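$ fold --in a.seq
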Amino acid sequence: MNANVLAVDLGAESGRVLRVSCDGSRLASEDLHRFPNNPVYAGDTLYWDVLRLWHEIEHGLAAGLDSASSIGVDTWGVDFALLDGDGRLVSNPVHYRDTRTHGMTEWVFERVPKRLIFERTGVQFMQLNTLYQIASLVRWNSPALRLAAVAISIPDLFNFWMTGQIAWEFTHATTTQFYNPRAAGWDYETLEAVGVPVQWFPQILPPGTQSGEYKGRPVILPPTHDTGSAVAAVPAVDEHFAYISSGTWSLIGLEVTSPIITEASYEANVTNEGGPFGTFRYLKNVAGLWLAQQSRATWRAQGHEYSYDELTRLAEAAEPFRSLIDPDASEFLPPGDIPERLREYCRATGQPVPETVGQVMRTIYESLALKYRWALERMVATSGKRVDVMHVIGGGSRSALLCQLTANAIGRPVVAGPAEATALGNAVVQLITLGVLPSLAAAREMVARSTATVRYEPQQWAEWDAAYTRFKGLIH
């Protein structure tokens, strides 16, 4: 069967609308529209500009709607919008990097013990999680508590604007830290204990559901969490793989058939997020290319424009293992001058201070690769799953240097690509739903046939193992 589907894919830095075509044996993708995703400060609050994003989405859909068999939307995770009883936005959705979550984990743990939250949800503790964002409304007695009738995820906001259907898609619901995978529903006990109105949360629909129509075309729910869609497009040949969905964040994980909620996974602070067709993503969030993106933006503001290729060349020429950081240290979470914060971190930890652009970038890339090893070791140990190869998908798969450093750090081959895994995964779930593809395994085989990948073999193991010993001393 032949089909064309439209994949709307919104990341934290940019958005795109792609047409993905299937001729029965291969996939082909075509850009219809690309656009920046620029958050906006108003006062001291950081917002997503969802109305601008909706305008861009409609522009992209208009370019491909005539030939579309269906449409699917995925976005970044954890953020949400509030609607009133008439379906209107109560306010612009707030960005997960906004300061409103500062101190919120402790505030929530006073009402629900930390260990109990993990037992109920199986989700990694991060202050940006939906639970702490939404609890901040209660703590500060936000007027939204009186005005809102519905809380809805960002992709489901766009689905609502397309179809009129109010629901949460499963993979996005599982990122909130108030979804209980054992009970297969919202964790009302935690929400009630925190004081969040439980009536805000509508039904949860699985990926592969047709949620309605947009201008006569079916709207099908892919995994609406972008990592869920990306993992659906991993071109794996067997089950013994791990993946890194590499973009603004690096999501490093394993695919499993049920959540792993144990004392060991709690201690490792890993997460269980839903995937399509009976799968779960057992993974850890690691700060990803955010560090490089913010560094580049800082240098641009100082009058120095660097392409990512130029930054890579400068990093390659820099001395290896001169300085290391924990990419997930709290000082690197907010937007701002990452190079200066990185220098302050190195001073505080008694390391040589990176001065040049190349030294800063080398520190970022090597530290990311070592953090990938640290995370992978914990997931393998707590799952018992064998990993023979690491698949790097998403925009970070284009960085030959980071992929090679990752292979060196983890001591396993890295297969890089496809770069547009999120949009392809979004598309193949639509194609499975339409009956064009029979299964997820068949879809992955088709992705492997249709996209170019690059394999990196590990090198310099002794040097990397010594650097890893140093790196572990930085992790708290």
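$ fold --in b.seq
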Amino acid sequence: MAGIAFFDLDLTLLSVNAGKLWVRSEYRRGRITRVQAARAGVWIAAYHLGYGKMERILCDAIATLAGQSEEDLRADSLAFFEREVSAHLRPGAAAVVESHRQKGDAIALLTSSSPYLCEPIQQRLDIPHVLCNRFKMKDGRFTGEPELPLCFGAGKLTHAQRLANELGVDLRDCSFYTDSWSDLPVLEAVGQPFAVHPDPRLARVARDRGWPVVSW
């Protein structure tokens, strides 16, 4: 095996933030209040401006799942993906995934999203490994607590290193594609970092460090 090609999901493989679309969808369906939707919008905006604490945002979002069944969330997520997300797969994404597969690289999603939103992309692009945020359960229902470490920031690096260890791969032989400055811990650890449609902060870092900036 040559290495692992890690791919972020939102605003990388996808041209949209699926989390933001999910909040809008839940509000339209009457499943969250206007106040909850507005609060989520503020959280997401603050995060993208560099002022939000994403770990808190993720934990607060996961807490809202308390008592919900995994079966219901999986069905809702699949319907949501087909209805609002599937058309936003970046045109060049599949070709890049396939190029790494042809080189012998393992392929992995490395995202802060949920496994239920990852599953349709995993199936569509034939991605065997999914590293994402997962949720504690009891008797088939969510407790409202995350499994730690969160798959965000330095936590993403922990997840990536675990998979590399499992597959007997050095992270320096791996690549990572992402849009987000928050993914610097992984970008700095892999041998081939790529900034895909990067946010302004990552664009500056990529320029300063000579990392490839790609458009799909």
